[in-house]
Amino acid sequence: MPTPPSSPESALxxxxxxxxxxxxxxxxxxxxxxxPNLGSLMGLLQASETLAGDDYSFNxxxxxxxxxxIGLEGDDGSLPWxxxxxxxIPGPQAWFHLCHFQVGMDQVQxxxxxxxxxxxxxxxxxxxxxxxxxxxxxxxxxxDSPGRWHVHGPALAGLRCASLERVAGxxxxxxxxxxxTHPEAERWLRRLQNEAQMxxxxxxVNDAREARRSLTIxxxxxxxxxxxxxxxxxxxxxxxxxQLREPALNADWSTWASAWTNLDAGPVAQLxxxxxxxxxxxxxxxxxxxxxxxHGPVAGLSGLWRRLRGPSAIAPILxxx
Length: 321
Known about the structure:
Strand order of the largest sheet: 2-10-9-1-8
Radius of gyration: 21 Å
Largest sheet: 5 strands, mixed
Oligomer: single chain
Structural class: alpha+beta
């Protein structure tokens, strides 16, 4: 999930990533999902907008919804999250996420850094190994966290990349960068990724990881690319809840359902209390294809909800995401 900007957080706009998934097992789990506070909240709200997409857009619906909420501009695959985190640095920027590419019989699957237990000294050693290559291309590379590096420089201009959360745990074949108007940027990135793979393969960091039976760090994934538009966004940041993220990325739908129950009893219940008190509230639910937003409270909707829809109406809403 992108790092939200440092603008004030709005407790009255709740944004829920991974509220649903296209996996049939998740769709089945939704049918019996009891979320009474969400049902009551929906009775007070009215749908206002839908960010439509599909399972193969480069940015996830929650990334697009967050960008719209804070006023951040960018095309699919080039929402400049890295530049937003470093507004004092001019020009194109990106994140490089360390990862493990798991090679199978007919696909290459990406294992993200948060499943690799990457230590700061491991990240620093790998960064030192690849930094000269980046410097040759006019790029500046620094560690943002053990699993993520920040990079900036002209070579990134025009690069369009699928976000890490689109590819984590999946085959990367359909998500390789595609920049039809800047093919040189795509070729450069493929070359650097190949060079990183060769460098990391024989690096002592991975010898030590193999010795302790840990997955190796054999590459990186780029995302968050782009240049910050003039006039950085200043809108209040929604309250983004990430409890559903890890179980969704791991396809652990039992834990995902339990996390939804906890969200319903916590942040959703708090938003419901605010709506019942007459405060304007906003709810954004994000699946793998669409993000839908509701505003309220709207007088008269609660009774209509109970009479015409009932509690079971939550499942169709989630499945529509």
